[in-house]
Specification:
The chain is an alpha+beta fold. The protein has two domains: 390 residues, ADP-ribosylglycohydrolase fold, CATH 1.10.4080.10; 139 residues, Galactose-binding domain-like (Jelly Rolls), CATH 2.60.120. Helices cover 37% and strands 15% of the residues. The protein has a five-stranded antiparallel sheet with strand order 4-7-12-9-10. It has a five-stranded antiparallel sheet with strand order 5-6-13-8-11. The protein has a three-stranded antiparallel sheet with strand order 1-3-2. A hairpin with a 2-residue loop joins β9 and β10.
Length: 577
């Protein structure tokens, strides 16, 4: 180790930010982890992710800028563990498959090709990054803010669990994996969030002290980045008020949600009640909240992280995974393991739970060899991983809100020929029975009627949603059959008659709005995070060509990918200016 690195480690140690394992690296020490114990903790880490996302799932983005009331947290049911269709989990399976096929030294461009060929639905930075890759923008530019307005979102943070689970006590491998896979869709704090999470997992194999776990993750990211500042703040606030998590939540809200110096507006605006944010720092603070204030209790860790709000299934998934790693599979409460389906396959991947565990068992041995470790056989005949202790070497500091130059990275023609994403799924038959929302529609917009409304996402009238009151929710009956609001309208002959709509979308999805007069399409608009402001869009359709006529206006909530397709209606009306 060079003199500069030695001084850095010593300085961090004296500051209390690097504890025993990192400080001991200069002495060439090792850690020993029985292979059977590794497998138990690794399995538990995956179970924790599935438990967290399953339990928090119904609350995701339902409460923003406020603490979720305790009575709105759903009850845990053992069958909720079978989360095989969650982006919080299946994306990292693609990374594992790439590592399994090409090894831990897989080039970033190969990682980008594999991610471009994934077939599952995506949102935010993941979706933008994959779209960039498919269009020929190679990594790391696929995650650069010039091409990806979601660069500091939560995406790599929610899927970085794999990195720590195959790298126990190997922080530099966690960091390097972040540079390979995190840069496909994120930049700056968006990448550091994943490296922090992965670093916490890597340490969770050796201690259940969540302060030490957090410090180990902190050592994996640049000390000058705002994400590291957030971690230091939350640790300090916890030390001051270790029993009042809601007080710390309010401090986080003031600095990391309401303060524009920390919420940069790449994807999400400075907040308060009703203001959504998918920023990595804010949601990363909620992971820490569960870990610190949960005091080692699985239920409380998941519930507190959930009640912090915002992306309240991703955050408890990370927190649950890290905590469960400290516990081990055999020591988990039966309610988290009894209903696990070993034959369930994670969406668009080759992995069942047993195959996933086997893959990680193979990759960790490769990781151990690459970091100078070895496998010993103890006197009892059991294998033990011997892991060299190493000082973390964080990535260079970059900022998504003050980005550096692009790399001008583009895929070659040969590489583009290897990008063959699967076709969109075939149109399906109706997914559920129709739901009668006639009373809700009549109350929201008298004279309008609804047909072909499905039951998914609980359509009906909401007293409040997305910061607006009296919101109607619809959902297509199927991919092929949109939900239709219609009314026979005598279009006024006054100056520029206009159909005015205020519509929104679920943060996890999008949909297409089609406006018709009889059989003529007047407008077709995508309602998504890229076309809306704070989740809403105002649309005005000029009805002047129809002035003085009576027509049937139809507003269609049409599916666009068949994932979280609900239409949210805050205003529907015809006016004459």
């Amino acid at each position: 180790m060079g003199r500069t690195v030695t001084l850095v480690v010593l300085g961090l140690f004296l500051a209390g930010l690097v504890s025993g394992p990192q400080a001991a690296a200069a002495e060439g020490k090792v850690r020993r982890l029985p292979v059977a114990e590794y497998v138990s903790r690794m399995k538990a880490g995956w179970i924790g992710q599935m438990a967290g996302v399953g339990w928090g799932g119904p609350t995701e983005f339902k409460v923003k800028g406020e603490i979720i009331p305790e009575d709105r947290v759903p009850q845990w049911k053992p069958e909720l563990i079978n989360q095989f269709h969650q982006d919080d989990i299946y994306v990292e399976m693609t990374f594992l498959e790439t590592l399994e096929r090409y090894g831990l030294d897989c080039p970033i461009r190969q990682a980008g090709i594999d991610f471009a060929n994934s077939g599952y639905p995506l949102w935010h930075a993941n979706r933008a990054g994959r779209d960039n890759l498919r269009s020929g923008i190679a990594p790391p530019d696929s995650g650069h803010p010039q091409f990806n307005q979601h660069a500091d979102d939560i995406d790599y943070q929610i899927e970085a669990d794999y990195a720590g689970l195959i790298a126990p006590g190997m922080p530099n491998l966690v960091i390097r994996l972040g540079e390979t896979f995190g840069r496909l869709m994120n930049y700056g704090d968006g990448v550091y969030g994943g490296q922090f999470v992965g670093g916490m997992y890597a340490e969770a194999f050796f201690t259940a002290d969540m302060v030490e776990v957090a410090k180990a993750g902190l050592a994996c990211i640049p000390a000058e980045c705002q994400y590291a500042e957030m971690v230091r703040d939350v640790l300090a606030w916890y030390a001051k008020d270790p029993d009042d998590w809601q007080k710390t939540w309010n401090l986080i809200e003031e600095k990391y949600h309401k303060n524009s110096a920390y919420t940069h507006g790449l994807c999400g605006k400075p907040g308060g009640p009703g203001a959504g944010s998918i920023d990595a720092k804010l949601n990363g603070a909620y992971i820490l909240m569960g870990l610190l204030y949960g005091k080692g209790d699985p239920d409380q860790t998941i519930v507190i992280s959930t009640r912090c709000g915002q992306d309240s299934d991703c955050n408890p998934s990370n927190a649950g995974g890290i905590l469960f790693t400290t516990i081990g599979f055999e020591n988990l409460p039966d309610k988290y393991t009894s209903a696990l389906n070993p034959e369930g396959t994670f969406s668009h991947t080759p992995y069942t739970f047993p195959k996933l565990i086997e893959t990680c068992k193979n990759l960790v041995r490769e990781a151990l060899a690459k970091t100078g470790g070895k496998v010993e056989t103890g006197a009892d005949g059991q294998e033990v991983f011997v892991i060299p202790i190493e000082a973390p070497r964080p990535s260079a500091l970059i900022k998504s809100y003050e980005p550096g130059p692009i790399a001008n990275a583009r895929f070659t023609d040969e590489e583009m020929a290897r990008i063959k994403p699967p076709p969109p799924p075939a149109r399906k038959a109706p997914q559920s029975p129709k739901k009668d929302i006639a009373k809700a529609v009549a109350a929201f917009a008298p004279g309008w009627t609804a047909e072909n409304c499905g039951t998914e996402m609980d359509p009906g009238l909401r007293a409040e949603w997305g910061g607006r009151k009296n919101v109607l929710v619809t959902h297509p009956l199927s991919e092929a059959a949109g939900c239709v609001l219609s009314k026979e309208v005598a279009v006024p002959a006054g100056t520029r008659p206009t159909l005015r709509l205020v519509v929104g979308h679920d943060p996890r999805g999008d949909w297409t709005l089609v406006v018709k007069a009889d059989d003529t399409v007047l407008a077709r608009q995508k309602i998504s995070s890229t076309t809306c402001t704070d989740g809403w869009r105002t649309i005005e359709v000029d009805l002047s060509p129809l002035a003085g006529k009576t027509v049937r206006l139809s507003l269609v909530n049409e599916a666009d990918g068949w994932s979280w397709e609900a239409g949210y209606w805050a205003e529907v009306g015809v006016r004459s200016q």
